[in-house]
Amino acid sequence: MKLVKTTEAVGQVLCHDITQIIPGVKKDAVFRKGHIITEEDIPVLLSVGKDMIYIWENDETMLHENDAAEILYRMTAGENMHPSEVKEGKIEVIADSDGLLKVDRERLKKVNSFGELMIAARHGNTVVKKGDKLAGTRIIPLVIKKEKMEKASEICSDVPILKILPFTMKKAAVITTGNEVFYGRIKDGFTPVIEKKINEFGVEMVFHETFNDDDKKITKGCLDAVNTGVDIIFCTGGMSVDPDDKTPLAIKNTGADIISYGSPVLPGAMFLLSYYKKDDRIIPICGLPGCAMYNKRTIFDLVLPRLLANDMITSDELALLGEGGFCLNCDVCTFPNCGFGKGW
């Protein structure tokens, strides 16, 4: 790459895209990489502020920004993704399927710490749809040393930074608890909320039972649901510390591994997550606090995509939700396009 006066560049090969900005009209490349500069191009180049311009000189030790972006794309994209057209040295990663986006944050940090190159991605653990943009890649200068790109590539030699997990769970059970519902004193307003939210992920409620505040009956209901072959179980009600709230005890008595009873999320502090193991199956059993019934967004909305993608959640990960786990209950809810739940 060589810097020359624009007025002396006729016949030379342009080594990068030249962007023209017309406010309110367009921002696009007026000339593309590889364009051979003509006499008629000189006034246009000068009009976009290019008194000096880079022309291409062959150097086997260097990579052009477009070629480097291709390498960064391969480091970033996993299965069920495709690249955009290379434009001004940038490639975007686009989803080919719905699912849960996972980001390898450590590898992403290492790549972006190299200098002279970058990968910008969406938050991990978020729901993406086919056609969504997931990330963008480019180098900062116009050219970069091949050796540097080769070293950066080693970070992602075995696995890319991004992957999409499909939503694999299809059959759910809901165990409704509470004397007030069981004896018909109030209408069950919880189950319809759960059913609506899981239906958005293609999950069907195939098992539903209602019990009074009897922990033995609730335990048996959970185990009956497991034996019908459901993929996931949601228990509603009875999640506080009141003496007659027996759902946490009932879930524990199923023999499930309790991951956490309580989460640093508001709304959702009384959430319980456990995993029940039967043969080669692992069935999440969740205790949902009452806030999931009447608040727009809660801990339920944060964990649901991960559970339905069969993405195991640890207690350490739940602890990370303390940062970003405070919902502002905005008058107009924009979730997931907000900070709620972006801490893990």
From TrEMBL:
Enzyme class, broadest EC rank: transferase
EC number(s) per entry: 2.10.1.1
MoaB/Mog domain segment(s): 173-309
InterPro entries in UniProt: MoaB/Mog-like_dom_sf, MoaB/Mog_dom, MoeA-like
Gene Ontology terms for molecular function: metal ion binding; molybdopterin molybdotransferase activity
SMART domains referenced in this protein's UniProt entry, alphabetically: MoCF_biosynth
Catalytic activity: adenylyl-molybdopterin + molybdate = Mo-molybdopterin + AMP + H(+)
Cofactor(s) listed: Mg(2+)
Gene Ontology cellular component terms for the protein in this record: cytosol
Pathway: Cofactor biosynthesis; molybdopterin biosynthesis
Keywords: Magnesium, Metal-binding, Molybdenum, Molybdenum cofactor biosynthesis, Transferase
Family annotation (Pfam families): MoCF_biosynth
Entry's Gene Ontology BP terms: Mo-molybdopterin cofactor biosynthetic process
Family the UniProt entry places it in: Belongs to the MoeA family.
Main function: Catalyzes the insertion of molybdate into adenylated molybdopterin with the concomitant release of AMP.
Name listed for the protein in its UniProt record: Molybdopterin molybdenumtransferase
Classification of source organism: Bacteria, Bacillati, Bacillota, Clostridia, Lachnospirales
